[in-house]
Amino acid sequence: MHLSVARLCLDCQEIHEGDRCPVCTSEAFGFMTRWVKIDDAPARVSPHEKSAGRPSKVDSYRQLLNPTPQRSRTARWLRKGGLVVAAGYLARWGWQIAADHTRSQRETPKDDGRS
């Protein structure tokens, strides 16, 4: 058991590392580092971190949760070009509606009250 996670049960004086004492199931505890000071020892490298060729688990999970797909240059140009074409068609459609509206207003005869 590592000293930084060791806990002393205040009821039965058992040393454990869980949230509850395994002997008396008490939740009253104190960390051992309260009474025993730890020197700043150099950090140990775990065997999983020694393999530099493989990404760590945290990086793997981060990639799974936030994927960043790599798109080709052609796909990006096609997507942007599609947006430009769609915007052009919408502008043309709006222009035609506005022109039809003004044309229909000119062609309707005004009723001046003569019958």
What layout of secondary structure does this protein have?
Blueprint: E1 7-9, E2 15-16, E3 29-31, H1 47-50, H2 57-65, H3 73-107
Antiparallel strand pairs: 1-2, 1-3
State the gist of this model:
The protein is mainly alpha-helical and 115 residues long. It has helices at residues 47-50, 57-65, 73-107; strands at residues 7-9, 15-16, 29-31.
Question: Could you give a short account of the major beta sheet?
Answer: 3 strands, antiparallel
The separation of the N and C termini measures 107 Å
Number of strands: 3
Give the strand content. 5-15%
Mean pLDDT, rounded to whole units? 79
The ordered string of helix (H) and strand (E) elements is EEEHHH
Poorly predicted regions are none
Q: Given the helix and strand composition, which structural class is it?
A: mainly alpha
Fraction of helical residues: 40-55%
Taken from the alpha-carbon principal axes, the silhouette is: elongated
Strand order of the main beta sheet, please? 2-1-3
Could you state the oligomeric state of the chains shown?
single chain
* Global Rg: 37 Å
Number of helices: 3
Highlighted features:
single chain; 115 residues; mainly alpha; three-stranded antiparallel β-sheet; 3 strands
Structure write-up:
- This protein has 115 residues and is mostly helical.
- Among the domains are: 1-38; 71-106.
- 42% of the residues lie in helices and 7% in strands.
- It has helices at 47-50, 57-65, 73-107; strands at 7-9, 15-16, 29-31.
- A three-stranded antiparallel β-sheet has the order 2-1-3, with no helix packed on it.
- A hairpin with a 5-residue loop joins β1 and β2.
